[in-house]
Structure prediction request, 281 residues.
Amino acid sequence: MISVFDIFKIGIGPSSSHTVGPMKAGKQFTDDLIARGLLAEVSKVVVDVYGSLSLTGKGHHTDIAIIMGLAGNLPDTVDIDAIPGFIQDVNTHGRLMLANGQHEVDFPVDQCMNFHADNLSLHENGMRITALAGDKVLYSQTYYSIGGGFIVDEEHFGQTTEAPVAVPYPYKNAADLQRHCRETGLSLSGLMMQNELALHSKEALEQHFAAVWEVMSAGIERGITTEGVLPGKLRVPRRAAALRRMLVSRDTTNSDPMAVVDWINMFAPAVNEENAAGGRW
Prediction:
């Protein structure tokens, strides 16, 4: 069963498939190097990005995400404020520290980050990462970003990676859920909670959603206080901060009970703009 941990997860923008997945792939690659005892031998890393990942790669920060993943970061914990400076340093010096500073390698971006319009055989969101020692290939792995921030390597593509955990109310469609609710008298949310408790402790669920809410709140706050334009060639101006000023200025005199909807409509573009700017969500 797909858990709420899979659905409500913390990442960075602009895209789960093109940003979150590639960062996780970069991190997985360096983890594999460490597990195989190869990290210290690596002199250079080369990344090849294919298909849809390539065609929208720059706009969705795919290249940045992979580099940050190779550096040892994950989407839910990476310091988003430190990303621009880190990438600038890599671009300037052509060197990359792997795995949280454990080993430095050559990484001239114009040679080591390559975009290919054609698809790999299994999926349109493909990437291949290769570790070299001089001209010798030490390790190479192909990953696919299959949606929602999920990644799979070529060997395990299409396979179920974990044995399913039995839940009290299994379902395949909405009709199954309705039947369970009728038979048990549980609400839909109550029924799903029982399934989740078969996968996680109540404490873990509470901690996860507290963390999700903290990130959501921080994203709103950044969105409504940040001015300027969004990244990209179109230079789209941010709107949420101006909307907030307008709402605050009229809030004390507005007696319309539906005014709260205007605030909700302001929070939405605030988070949208943070996502577009590579913020955490």
